Amino acid sequence: MPWIHEQDVIDMYVYAVDNDTISGDYNMVAPQPVTNKQLTQAIAKVLHRPLWLPAIPAFALELALGEMSAMVLNSTKVSAQKIEDAGFKFSYPTLVWALTGIYSPNQTFPGGSLKQT
Fold first, then answer.
1. What is the pTM of this model?
2. In this structure, what is the dihedral angle of CA atoms 76, 29, 38, 92, given to the nearest 10 degrees?
3. Is the Cβ–Cβ distance between 106 and 115 less than 8 Å?
4. Mean pLDDT per 10-residue run, the chain (117 residues)?
């Protein structure tokens, strides 16, 4: 499942505007895609909440959501490699850092604070 932190969206737009070498199409996604299960687990971890939702079988989602179930069940393969090759550096390359930046911006990690300056 592709995702991206809002600050990386802003930074990528600014990077593209400021660099004449950027042309063509770029995927605006973080470099590390995750599964829906990984997303749910990361949110629970960052919010310090128990993960109590049971795994719902695909057929149940299809019955409940119809065609909309494809948004949850299907995979989308996109890559941030092209923008990284162009020199862009993500502020939030991992999901845990992105979620922590949203929910606990003053949290510190071995590399320093996640708070944007």
1. 0.73
2. 170
3. yes
4. 93 96 94 87 87 79 86 80 96 92 70 45
- The per-residue b/e assignment along 39-68, b for 16 or more CB within 10 angstroms, e otherwise, is eeebbeebeeeeeeeeeeeeeebeeeeeee
Q: Using the structure block, give the residue that is written with the tokens 């199409």.
A: 25
Residue 108: the pLDDT is: 58
Stated as kind and residue range, the H or E segment containing 109 is strand 108-109
3-state helix, strand, coil in the chain (%, to 5): 45, 5, 50
Residue the block writes with tokens 């042309």? 23
Report pLDDT for 91. Answer: 94
Q: How far is Cα 88 from Cα 11, in angstroms, rounded to an integer? A: 9
Give the whole-angstrom CA distance, residue 15 versus residue 2. 20
Q: State the CB neighbour count (10 A cutoff) for residue 20.
A: 6
Residue with tokens 């895609």: 33
